[in-house]
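User:
Hi there, any thoughts?
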Amino acid sequence: MRIDSVFRTAAVLLIGTVQAFAAADDLPAQARAAMDRGVAFFHQQVAAHGGYVYLYSADLKKQEGEGKTTRETVWVQPPGTPSVGEAFVRAYVRTGDAACLAAAKDAAECLLQGQYRSGGWNASVEFDPAVRAKEAYRTDRPAPKKRQRNNSSLDDDKTQSALRFLMQLDRALKFKDERIHEATLFALDSLLAAQYPNGGWAQVWEAPADPQTPANLKARYPEDLPRKYPGGDYWNFYTFNDNNISNVIDVLQLAEEIYGGGRYRAAMLKAGEFILAAQMPDPQPAWAQQYNFQMEPVWARKFEPAAVSGGESQRLIETLMELYIDTGDRRFLEPIPKALAYLKKSQLPDGRLARFYELRTNRPLYLTTDYTLTYTDDDLPTHYGFQVPSRLPQLERRYETVSTMTPAKLAQEPKKSTALPKSASLEPRVRKIIAEQDDRGAWVEAGRLKYHGKGDSTDRVIASETFAKNLDLLSQFLQVSAAVR
């Protein structure tokens, strides 16, 4: 062989080796391949009727939401179908990937099949005909001689999460899918109609709110405080429980951004007025989970007594600051210093906050495993958080910043952070989730199925929440990588 041929051959081999190494370390290409595999697996093998539940066994033979389910039930409550659907929409918007759009549209169709005639959603969507006949779904014919459930729920972010997903998909589709657009606007109209005259919402609605309920009352302490669970239809009262109204305000802000018109902003401001009115007077200037129509704290479930809440109060402080940033109205800041001072004084010895503080006395309030009120925490039910982390230092720092913002500064403040992270900051996590993906495209992790009995042997699961987070990170990385190329 001639020497020049040897050199040419060596050069070709060297270039090929360099290219192979470059391809092997082409992280955007690897991320795109991982996204494609993950979306295909979740959409084609995990989805049922276009929707999702919380957890699946690694072999997909068992599944559950807040209970053991079959393939004829999908979940709405996060991290169910809307959470996965939202990740699909964001990935489509960031990358233009057609498979992500197809999966998002199927998830939306699933939710349309579960929308109630009252406009919203509940925890799940049922597809078994016998079970489905008990639900007042809009897409089905009414059954006049049967009592059908028509409960649209704000509890645990159910209707709110469905709306956030559908609104983003509607926008991504440029409002051209008539069924998705109509269902989304119907849900928003129903949500506005369910708002009480004072700006609050109940946990559940079946019809528009009663316009005769009082509109101008402020929070007050009840004369009598039941020590035992009184029962009753607590879900009809005004509720902050599980941050319901804060989540609704987020929905209304997004609705105003997407659709405009001023109605959603007006409802948001009305909700802000309700938060102001619901702050308890001294000596406990924070918020309760639930109020009756006289604006007195009341019991909800048998483990949720009438009390001031250390949990929901922290989120409401955040919401008030967001309302100030949005409006520049300093009235939304006025309740915060007293609330922060009260909550700091109420911290437990370990720095956490009690979920419940007894009205007037401010003693931390708990329940025993047989649901008897007590002041000790040595016999708590395990299904509920009776003590919550304190975020007071972060809230104080945020308040110090927000309260000094001038109108000019507020005008420059983004409603939500839109700044893209640097790709280098995402790379370690992207490499980790690529390495953790199996040959099917699944992310399998250690875990158990909660509702399949103590004898269930499952120790590896596939979680919708993990899939949504991983897809979100991959699509964000691909967006950032494309922006810097």
